[in-house]
Amino acid sequence: MSGIVGIYYLDGRPVDRENLTKMVDILAHRGPDGADTWVDGCVGLGHRMLWTTPESLIEKLPYCNQRGDLVITADARIDNREELIAALQINNRPADKIADSELILAAYEKWGEDCPKHLLGDFAFAIWDERRQVLFCARDHMGVKPFYYYSSNDTFVFGSEIKAIFCLPNIPRKVNETRVAEYLLVIFEDKATTFYQNILRLPPGHCMTISKEDIKISCYWELNPHKELKLDSDEEYAQAFREIFTEAVRCRLRSAFPVGSTLSGGLDSSSITCVARNLLDSDKPLHTFSIIFEEISECDERPFINEVLAQGNFIPHYVCGDKISPLGNVHQMYKHHDEPFHFPNACFFWGISPEVKNQGVRVLLDGFDGDTTVSHGIGYLNELANTGEWLELIREVIGQAKYSEQSFWNLLSPYLWNHAVKPSHRSFIERVRRKVAKLKQPNTNNQTLLKREFVERIALREHLQAIYQMKPLLETQRDNHHRIITWGVVPFILEIIDRTAAAFSIEINHPFFDKRLIEFCLALPPQQKIHRGLTRIVLRRAMDNILPQKVQWRTDKNNFEPSVINGLLTLDKELVEQVICHNSEHIEDYVNIAPMRLIYQQLISNRTSQELFPVWLATTLSYWHSQSKLP
């Protein structure tokens, strides 16, 4: 994790190095190990250095090739180094003397704008090509590394964080109201837009070429939803998963400093932690960082955490989650978060990061959203109902009931409703249900929270209609899996995690977002994702003799929401009520305040996620708006 910035004046005026230096300086937290700029006429590139990998210790950025006609700035960790070194025939020095940015630049020299297709890892970079007079930029497959930009007729400017772009004079700072509505409705289909007008993000898996004539954005990689992997047995699937997953972890362990791993006790973080421990030398114990709870016992996972730690060769660290305030550091957090942070669990990353930094750990492995990559496979049940395979569906639902707190009939009834009841009957019953619901309680869904004037001003209905018309029908489990894994909320939350870690000069690596692993999991048959109600079965089988069985076969999942709700209603009560009950000026143009206050009262009474998210979204939006220096 480093910081990159750049300016390209399309009208030919020279870059002011002082402006570029301001952009670099505002990202000092991203790279405390060095800073530099490069300027040549109308183009300037800058970099903040955070040493992580052994090769980064010798890396100097921005970096020029020997001819001086190509220059790169990059925030990158390249994982297929051996393959690239051989293909590029860089044989004049040892591999550990070749920086990742040099490999990227050599790849561009050989393959031109196709170079991202040959790269594995997490990266965001920009290359100035003096011969062609173009700036070429690219972002990794899943959007782990951030890349924001602003463009006009005469200016193109980019940075790892939006705040760097605003260092340049005359960049307009205006709220993007459509994005505000999408945020409040939890709609993240657009992977390019931000909360600021004309400030955009380069979508994951895309590259961009900027010249004085135009800007061209193209997709260099996308998941294939039609590819299906066929092996001969469950054991072969598990072995193949284990090999790819182990390699995904190994690549992300490359560090010149102590390495750590978050350990929640869940299947994802425990799998990463145990595999990483096995890969490290015995004289290099793995640091683990866990959130524990003394008061909110339903959030405490120590029985599972201790099962992992009992294997040995760990250095465990604990942070008390009862004392983590979701909004306690809100003003400091918004110095680093240029946008509202939809992800309530971001507070736990903020709470654990100081301890990570205190231990000298710079690379932290995390199991965020392994559910998305591996998939619970629930879409397979709908696929069975669609194809009329009721006996197999019943077998799966029986298993699902065994591993959940729901009854067999409650689990089966939605499939009967959608596939066995006639459409005319469903329509009649649904109308009756809606009328009864209206009598029981007021309608407080997210859409009714938005002000009518706001909805009409931004033509929200037309906007949503256009979005949902483009959505494909989800006919199979693979369709469903593809839809979830390509949802725009994934890179958005990855960026929230990145900015949180960057505040403490830490790089968070996500093995579950390895391109190879994602492609493998999407191509799996649905029976490798769910089997007799037991979800994520291929991961469980793959972790045989690696995970403690208590963790490997656990069927429940920790939920930090009770802690977040408790924090909001106790530790952060004044901050929340300041927005919801007393001073709503920053959200009153968007939100109907009276229904929002009703939901807040319901949150106090019920303490469920149904009320948590509207309150959380409105509160974080208000504090962002108040600190973002919007006109």
Protein described:
The structure is a single chain. The chain is α+β, with helices and mostly antiparallel strands and 631 residues long. Among the domains are: 3-219, 4-Layer Sandwich (Glutamine Phosphoribosylpyrophosphate, subunit 1, domain 1); 234-374 and 489-526 and 535-552, HUPs (Rossmann fold), CATH 3.40.50.620. The chain is 43% helix and 15% strand. The protein is built from 27 helices and 19 strands. The chain has a six-stranded antiparallel β-sheet. Strands 4-5-6-7-11-12 form a six-stranded antiparallel β-sheet, with helices on one face. The protein has a five-stranded parallel β-sheet with strand order 15-14-13-16-17, with helices on both faces. Helix 10 (346-358) packs parallel to helix 20, helix 12 runs antiparallel to helix 19 and helix 26 packs across helix 27 (609-627). The longest helix has 19 residues, at 234-252.
Which SSEs are present, and which pair or pack?
Blueprint: E1 3-9, H1 17-25, E2 35-40, E3 43-48, E4 63-64, E5 70-78, H2 81-88, H3 100-111, E6 121-129, E7 134-139, E8 148-151, E9 155-159, H4 162-165, H5 177-184, E10 199-201, E11 206-210, E12 215-219, H6 234-252, E13 259-262, H7 267-279, E14 286-292, H8 302-309, E15 314-320, H9 330-336, H10 346-358, E16 363-365, H11 370-374, H12 379-386, H13 390-403, H14 408-419, H15 423-440, H16 446-449, H17 452-457, H18 460-469, H19 477-485, H20 489-502, E17 507-509, H21 515-523, E18 530-531, E19 534-535, H22 537-542, H23 549-552, H24 561-571, H25 573-582, H26 593-606, H27 609-627
Parallel strand pairs: 13-14, 13-16, 14-15, 16-17
Antiparallel strand pairs: 1-3, 1-9, 2-3, 4-5, 5-6, 6-7, 7-11, 8-9, 8-10, 11-12, 18-19
Helix pairs in contact: 2-3, 6-21, 9-27, 10-20, 12-13, 12-19, 24-25, 25-27, 26-27
